[in-house]
């Protein structure tokens, strides 16, 4: 007889059980990227990834102590690998996990079992922040048309704002595996892209694990989801604690989420200047000469223009940046779309005359801000 901790949800229960003939261990896999030079807004953007395993047989307050975690791999920087190259880092881990699943590994002698014992292990959850979870599971980023890894909602049909959850259709493991396999078997990049565009799924090494459910076992962890996501969103952006002051003379409040990590310093500066320009009243300038304003917009770097278009959802039918943060439309198209978007707040400005400056500034800021922040909600 052996005492075992059995973890049921958040409670741990002490039970007396007959010892398993083989040791059975469940693990969670975590992949996270961080900046080793610390996260300063104007600092150098460097990204290094760590891959770690936590043993879920341990009680929750023990399993994440540094001495109990297993650092399986390091993904070298300075940039995150492109979406389809993360698999190379997972291959050796999956090889080991496959062996540990079947037939298991026999240790000739352990501390508690002098005569030896067979161990079998399984990976039962991948716990990451949202971008890393998508990369590891082979799912499209949250910018893609198929933005969800759990259901079939699409950006243009249901959108990010839909709460009609009874109509959402859940993805299943078998169909995720089917698309993952079709992606792997595709003879060329064009057919791979066709599979990906239709399903939002790429090949993932995790699909080699026979027991792993791609649609259920990929989890966004509580720290990123709740503390850095919803709670930060609520306090920082809805209540406004610690939010940057609106620039002087601004008529709308524009806030972008952090730009992609590979934006150069010049591109970041360009984005900041563009943000300032979009907040200023451009009414008279556009009326005098829309061409001149477009020309002014064309002077900004290409990717900041595309990033602004994507984040402000200037055109619901267009995707302006792909998963690897490349601009998908020309500078001219981005500038034209931004120009149309800039014209939109005129509606709010018009009511300044009727309702008084302050109330409208607050109202329009809030409405614009809601529009903008809708995009940032799923970021973490
Ligand atoms: Zn969903």
What features would you describe in this structure?
With 380 residues, the chain is of the alpha/beta class. The chain has two domains: 3-239, no CATH class; 265-379. 40% of the residues lie in helices and 16% in strands. It has 14 helices and eight strands. The protein has helices at 60-63, 87-101, 130-137, 173-185, 189-199, 222-239, 265-279, 283-288, 290-298, 302-312, 331-343, 346-350, 352-355, 357-376; strands at 2-8, 11-17, 23-34, 48-55, 69-75, 105-107, 117-128, 218-220. The strands form two sheets. Strands 3, 4, 5, 6, 7 and 8 form a six-stranded mixed β-sheet that branches. A hairpin with a 2-residue loop joins strand 1 (2-8) and strand 2. The longest helix is centred in the C-terminal third of the chain and has 20 residues, at 357-376. Residues 13-18 and 346-380 have low confidence and may be disordered. Zinc ion binds at residues 148, 150-151, 153, 168. The site of zinc ion (ZN) has 5 residues, from loops.
């Amino acid at each position: 007889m052996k005492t075992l901790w059995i973890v049921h949800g958040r409670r741990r229960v002490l039970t007396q059980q007959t010892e398993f003939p083989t040791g059975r261990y469940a693990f969670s896999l975590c992949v996270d990227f961080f900046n080793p030079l610390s996260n300063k807004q104007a600092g150098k953007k460097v990204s290094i990834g760590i891959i770690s395993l936590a043993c879920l047989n341990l009680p929750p307050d023990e399993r994440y102590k540094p001495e109990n975690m297993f650092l399986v791999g390091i993904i070298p920087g300075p940039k995150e690998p492109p979406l389809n190259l993360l698999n190379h880092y997972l291959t050796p881990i999956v090889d080991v996990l496959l062996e540990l699943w079947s037939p298991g590994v026999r240790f000739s002698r352990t501390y508690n079992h002098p005569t030896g014992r067979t161990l079998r292990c399984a990976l039962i959850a991948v716990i990451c922040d949202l971008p890393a979870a998508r990369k590891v599971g082979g799912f499209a980023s949250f910018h893609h048309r198929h933005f969800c890894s759990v259901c079939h909602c699409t950006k243009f049909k249901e959108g990010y704002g839909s709460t009609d959850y009874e109509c959402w259709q859940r993805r299943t493991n078998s169909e995720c595996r089917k698309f993952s396999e079709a992606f792997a078997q595709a003879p060329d990049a064009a057919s791979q892209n066709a599979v990906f565009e239709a399903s939002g799924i790429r090949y993932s090494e995790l699909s080699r694990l026979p027991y792993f459910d791609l649609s259920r076992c990929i989890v966004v962890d509580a720290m990123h989801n709740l503390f850095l996501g919803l709670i930060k969103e609520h306090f920082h952006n809805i209540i406004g604690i610690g939010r940057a002051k609106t620039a002087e003379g601004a008529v709308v409040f524009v806030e972008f989420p952090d730009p992609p990590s590979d934006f150069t310093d010049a591109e970041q500066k360009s984005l900041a200047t563009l943000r300032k320009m979009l907040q200023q009243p451009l009414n008279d300038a556009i009326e005098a000469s829309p061409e001149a304003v477009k020309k002014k917009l064309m002077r900004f770097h290409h990717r900041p223009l595309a990033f602004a278009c994507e984040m402000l959802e200037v055109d619901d039918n267009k995707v302006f940046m792909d998963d690897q943060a490349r601009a998908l439309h020309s500078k001219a198209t981005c500038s034209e779309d931004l120009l149309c978007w800039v014209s939109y707040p005129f509606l709010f400005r018009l009511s300044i005359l009727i309702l008084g400056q302050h109330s409208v500034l607050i109202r329009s800021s809030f409405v614009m801000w809601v529009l903008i922040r809708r995009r940032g909600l799923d970021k973490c």
